[in-house]
Each structure stands twice: as C-alpha cells, then as structure tokens.
Amino acid sequence: MTKLDSIHTDNKKRANDYVHEVYELVKKRNPDEKEFLQATREIFDSLRPVFAQHPEYITNGILERITEPERIITFRVAWEDDQGKVHVNRGFRVQFNSDLGPYKGGIRFHPSVNASIMKFLAFEQIFKNSLTGQPIGAGKGGSDFDPKGKSDREIMRFTQSFITELSKYIGPDRDVPAGDIGVGKREIGYMFGQYNRLKGGYEAGVFTGKDPNHGGSLGRKEATGYGTVYFVEEMLKVKNESFDGQTVIVSGSGNVSIYAMEKAMQLGAKVVACSDSGGYIYDENGINLDTVKRLKEVENKRISEYTKEHLQAEYHDDCSAIWSIPCDIALPCATQNEIDEIAARMLVANSVKAIGEGANMPCTLEAMALFQENGVLFGPAKAANAGGVAVSAMEMSQNSMRLSWTAEEVDEKLHLVMKNIYTSCVDAADRFGHPGNLVMGANIAGFLKVADAMVAHGLS
Ligand code: NDP
Description:
7-stranded mixed beta sheet, alpha/beta, 50% helix, 3 domains, 14% strand, 5-stranded mixed beta sheet, Rossmann fold
C-alpha cells in the first residue's frame, strides 16, 4: 500500500466512524421517532464519501449540528365546532436550519401529524431547499387536526386559532410557511388574514401558496407536480426516452398528483391510475383529468365517484394495490412510505422504468434499494419535488418587488430550476464516486452548500 493509499484508507475509516457515532447519538436522542430516523439514516449513508474528502466538516461537528433542530415550537390549539363544542389539537413548527435563509416549509393538517413526522419533513427540507439554489432555510409545521368533514367555518376557526399562536414565531424574514397535506390556498388565506390582523398591517411575504388574486404567484399550484415530471423527463433522457407514449401511475389525487398527471399527459403519457386514501381507480383508456379535478378540487368528493361517470373504469378499495398495475413510470405523490418492499417488487416485476417521488419520502429504504439494484431510474423526493418550494421562493421575490410574473415566466423559471437540480445531483454523484446514483447526488449536493454555510457562520 502506498502512503497516499493509506491516507485514503485512514480518511475513509475516520469518516465511517464519525457517521456511525453520530447516528448512534441521533438514535439515542430520538428513540421513538421512526420517520425522522429513517430520513437521517438515508442522508448519513450518502454522506460517508463527503466526510472522507472533507475532514473540516467533522472538526466543525456538522452532522451533530445539522440533525438537531434550531428550535421546535409545540403549542395548544383550542377551537370551537359548529355545535359550540370545544376541541383541542396540538400545533407544531420545527425551525430546523436557517443558515441559507429564513425557515421555509409547509404546514400539514392531518391526524397522523406528530413530532417525528414534523422533524423528518423539516430535515428533508434542509437539503431540498438548498438544492433549489435559492436563499431559503428549512422548517415544517402542522397539526393533528383532521380537516375531513369539517365545515368551512370550522376550518376558519381552527386555522385562526393555530396562527394566533404561531404568529409570534414567523415573519417574512424569519419563517415563511406554505401549504402541504390538508392545507391549500383557502387555509393559507385564513392564516394570512389572521396574521395581518394581529400585526396591524399587510406583510405579503409571510406566507406562500396564497391565492394568485391576493398576493400569490401564478404557477405555484402546479409547481410541485410539474416540477416532478420535469425532473423525471431529465432522468429519462439517459435512456433516450421521454414521457411520450409511456403508461404512468400516479398515487393520490391531491395538489401534487393532479398537476403531475396534467404535465405527464401534456408530454404525451397515458395516466391509467390514481388514488386517495380510500382506494384507487384504474381507467385503461387513460384517466379523464377534468373529472378528477372537479371531484377533488371543486366538489371535495372521494375518487370512487369517478367510476359513476366513466363506466369502463374500475375502483378498488385498497390504495396500496395501485402499484400492482403494470406501468412504465410510477409517480408516488400521496404520502410517506406508501411504496414498501412488496410494492417495489411488484413494480420491478412489471418492468417499471422510472420512479419519481412527488410526495415526501414515499419509498421506504428497502424499496429504494430494490429499485437501484434493478436499474430502475430513481428520482428522490428532495430533488424531484423541489419545484413547489422553488416557486414559493419566487413568490417571496415577487412579494418583495411588489410585482407579478406571468404563468409562462414562472413555468420557464421552474423548468430551469429542475434541470439545474438534476445536473447538480448528477455532478455530485460523479464527483463522489457514485455515478448515476441520484439519491446520493441529491443528498450530497444539498448538504455541501448548507455545510459550507455552517462552517462559515461558526458554531451555533
Ligand atoms: P393533498 O392533501 O393535496 O393530497 C394528498 C393526496 O394523497 C390526497 O388525495 C389523499 O387522499 C391522498 N392520500 C393520503 N394518504 C394516502 C395513501 N396512503 N394512499 C393513497 N393516497 C393517499 O397533499 P399534497 O398533494 O399537497 O401533498 C402530497 C405529498 O407531496 C405530501 O407528501 C407532501 O408533503 C408532498 N409535497 C407537497 C408539496 C406541495 O406543494 N403541496 C411540495 C412538496 C412535497 P385523501 O383525500 O383520501 O386523504
């Protein structure tokens, strides 16, 4: 062994020991937080080659620091239903990292919301926001409030109560929330109104995802879904392929799913299935998106209703079985861990060519490994669904400049951001010895920028 070889071996060992030690520490500190541990494990596995080349990140304790949120705010949200009964929910905001800019990330209203889910989402946001190249830090928030079956007035009262407490900790240069599961432009509108009432002024830049008629950006609603498809389009070029003529499955039928389906169809794909938490529909003629949009965006109905209007379509009341349908491209756009090893095996057996994660962490670690082992092109969430937050940052810019870009201008910028993210992932994977591995590429490219800022900013 030459002297140089032995230095490399020492550096590799030191990096592996460091990653192992910090992961044990994170496990000990967060014993019951399985989603958070799953997200940290994936990042840690990717970063080993980085620490071997950059010992300064070890001496600056970057991994210990980046896995501990700067601040977690937990609060009571009391509200009254239409019958005058008082309810109490729990509110969260995880302000994870502000080295690149104000905390930025959505608010989720769903009964499954807990500290682990909030922390995993905020942690992922660090790397995603960094990848966009825009000056935004990372956060996430939400509540275990279930908006299903609530009246408009109940949603308004809950949301006002939620923001009354959260308003103490957010602001255009401090923390800028947006929507997520269960939070769309209606909820953002109520939050924005209540925040301005409390502050006694109009602070447009405090929320993104606002209605385009009231300070929001055109193209924000479409951004995450369109961006996911733009990212997968870049991936497919490696195999000299495109969306044209491909059969596609998209899980969910919410904001991300609907616009992923729309862009895939515009690019010539046939989308044959989508779902909600009750089940999935399969339409061999190709899903009629106008019907899905009306059912979900206007009438607030279940996806099963689709088959009443399209008699050739089938409804199955097991949403996870959607992955048994043969397809060329699968876009999981519903929720975390929706593709497990069993689902991944079905997709691989049906010769799926590409997976694009529109939702956050929709594939388990085992599923992800299986896709990679079988040569399936894999676009990880941090990169593939970053289009939403990228356009949110554009909304912040438009609010600061007090002007509005056209939908075409926003879409053009979004397309460019997604292409740049793809290139950064490819370059980082190449540079650190794992060509073609976009999971490693996304984690590393997202990490480097934040780590450098953390070194530059000194210990905190
Ligand atoms: P929505 O609330 O608009 O939609 C979620 C959809 O997923 C609904 O159709 C819901 O059905 C369905 N769903 C929930 N659980 C399941 C399940 N187990 N199987 C099948 N379908 C299910 O949320 P978004 O579209 O905004 O968000 C979806 C995902 O994308 C989340 O992971 C979110 O964090 C992520 N994301 C969202 C961004 C955005 O801009 N909105 C940005 C980046 C990531 P039901 O109505 O029955 O609950």
